[in-house]
Specification:
By secondary structure, the protein is mainly alpha-helical. It is built from five helices and two strands.
Amino acid sequence: MHWLVNTVVLMVVAGFFTGFTLDGFGAALLAAALLGVANAIVRPILVALTLPITLLTLGIFLFVINGFILMVIASIMGDSFVISGFGMAFLAAVVISILNVMINWLIVEPMRERS
């Protein structure tokens, strides 16, 4: 379910920002899969290493980590996923986080409660 939500969210962000482009649904699906793997393996290590600065910024530095992960995924995927710069990656990380929370709160959780 998270993979599908991330795919949709990535496509929505790509539709709103010109500096964030995906070459279709397949690229969004692959990017969401890579994002899931990176969030499961790389992100916890980065969060642990940057814990002091994350605490000093009251968690805002987590968006920097998420932006960095997006930039790495874009560089791995080449021309099928392009982010124009780190500012765009940071903005996308904020929007992706907000959309994920909203979708999970408004759609996914009510679906789980019904089953």
